[in-house]
Amino acid sequence: MPTLRCAPPLCSWASPPPSDLLLVTVWRGSHSLMSVLHVLTCGCYSPGRGLSSSEDLPYNDEKLDSFPFFVLVILTEMVDAMKKVAELDVELTAEERNLLSGGYKNVIGARRASWRILSSIEQKEESRGNEMHVKWIKEYKQKIESELSRISNDIMTLVDEHLIPSTSAGESTVFYYKMKGDYYRYLAEFKTGIERKEAADLSMKAYETATTAAEADLPSTHPIRLGLALNFSVFYYEILNSPERACHLAKEAFDEAISELDTLNEESYKDSTLIMQLLRDNLTLWTSDIPEDGGDSNSYYRTLPFKKSYYRT
């Protein structure tokens, strides 16, 4: 499976330490207070690289002494404030929706990044036969998974009990069902067995509901409709392991938007064209996973600049 395109690091002054010890030593102390440190660590240190001593830990750097916790407080306060607004059972404005969504995405995104890096290190340590290291990683992964479940269930309760019942606009309906699809997809990323299947089924159902509403109420160039197609196609590719269906959905959304690009208003032009670029980038990579036939309808996308990783949110 392709490597993940990570978000830009929040800091750039740190260089990877030379040692090959376990990266898990970075994450010590209260895991519930380390969200931003996870992001900083993922940005500053390469997967599989470790730290040689406590002096190498990023939060012992004077430049990082207070910044992570300052950012964490801001994110936590923003989520708490927007959660209270959502519980008022009033229809949120577009700005309020974005604040709520962005706050939760930042909070959960750090943990998703940590989980992926730890999974990569776990495989490496298993191949080396380092059973104690693997045990430590598994224990920490379980803590992260508990937080991922808690955050996902929290936002989905808000969506089901407050946000969807309070909305009347088609745009908001698409937005909230897309959120449900996203957060069930996040659960399916680490769940196993029956729990994974249940999360995947609920994600599929939410994405399909959002797609039906989007096709009825939003133009093909609308950023929310394009973002839905982007995330739904990632669901097909990553969760259902179906590059063909992922490519079909992404290509259809891209082509429909291209055909109506002239009607795009200036207000949403930047957002829409950015998502279209991401759809195209994913198609460039994903079509390489599909065996070529004589008359390949996806051949155009193979001629586009190749990306080593695909975009996912």
Automatic annotation (TrEMBL):
Pfam families: 14-3-3. Belongs to the 14-3-3 family. PROSITE patterns: 1433_1, 1433_2. This is 14-3-3 domain-containing protein. Residues 76-300 form the 14-3-3 domain. InterPro entries: 14-3-3 (IPR000308), 14-3-3_CS (IPR023409), 14-3-3_dom_sf (IPR036815), 14-3-3_domain (IPR023410).
